[in-house]
Amino acid sequence: MPKTVLVIPSRYASTRLPGKPLRLLAGKPMIQHVYERAKDARVEVGFDEIIIATDDERIQKECEIFGAEVCMTSTSHETGSDRLAEVVKLNGWADDTIVVNLQGDEPLTPINNLKQVAINLANNPEASIATLATPLSSEAEYKDPNVVKVVSDKNGMALYFSRASIPFQRDEGLPANKFALRHIGIYAYRAGYLTSFTDMEPCQIEQLEKLEQLRAMWHGAKIHVAVAKEVPGHGVDTEEDLLAVEKILLK
Q1: Global pTM?
Q2: By C-alpha distance, which of 75, 70, 69 is closest to 55?
């Protein structure tokens, strides 16, 4: 397996929950919980490096207190992939390095999923990106525009991602929602592809759906999709999420 690294993008600014990475969960900043989850995964996956990527000195100082390696990045990045690409360039990683992205607001991400997405990319050389999904749990999820759906081909390569209910069932018969999966935002990238991706022009379908992965597909990249080995834990976007995750951690 090529060199494999894990990067945790972490921004201080958040519309719904300002200062989110430094909010306390069970007595520790949320970013520390995420980092400790990554360290647990390091044993399972064999990550060569774990880096927190941020543009805020408050996050940098807190992360250095608990011993994390921090990479300071530009404040002008619009997306997490832009921030990841800068980390790749600053560290000079080889093009075949596998870069796993663990969001800084996902303290309950299963270790098995981090391992799975890295191995899937390594085992599928035709893919530039690997990601995971879970089965849709209801008709309401299938119709919810806040739930991103993905449909794949027989080899597990994505055909399309959408907020719409895909595939559409024209006639009675097979239930359409059995052919789509709920996409979850965990990715592994090849470092060389990541740096070229951020130089690509956004495309119209990406702008319509507000889904960055459609830019990759528009420009011809293959994205490997697999059903996650474990249902991902609760992410943190709101005060309510913060309380819910804290209850889980305290158990």
Answers
A1: 0.93
A2: 75
- Cα(73)–Cα(51) distance, integer angstroms: 12
> Looking at domain 4-250, what is its CATH homologous superfamily?
Spore Coat Polysaccharide Biosynthesis Protein SpsA; Chain A (3.90.550.10)
Give residue-wise pLDDT tens across range 18-55. Answer: 889 999 999 999 999 999 999 988 877 789 999 999 99
DSSP assignment of 129-195, as one string?
A: EEEEEEE---HHHHH-TTSPEEEE-TTSBEEEEESS--S---SSSS-GGGS-EEEEEEEEEEHHHHH
pLDDT digits (tens, 9 = 90+) for 54-103: 999 999 999 999 999 999 998 888 778 888 999 999 999 999 999 999 99
Query: Tokens representing 105?
Result: 């607001």
CA-to-CA distance for 134 and 184, rounded, in angstroms?
A: 7
Cβ-in-10-Å burial (0-12, 13-18, 19+) of 217 comes to buried
Residues 11/19, Cβ–Cβ less than 8 Å: no
Q: What is 4-59 written as a DSSP string?
A: EEEEEEE-S--SSSTTGGGSEETTEEHHHHHHHHHHHHHHHH--SEEEEEES-HHH
Residues in contact with 196: Cβ distance below 8 Å, sequence separation at least 6, in sequence order: none
| Residue 28 bridge partners (DSSP) | 25
For the four alpha carbons of 16, 17, 19 and 20, in that order, the dihedral sign comes to: negative
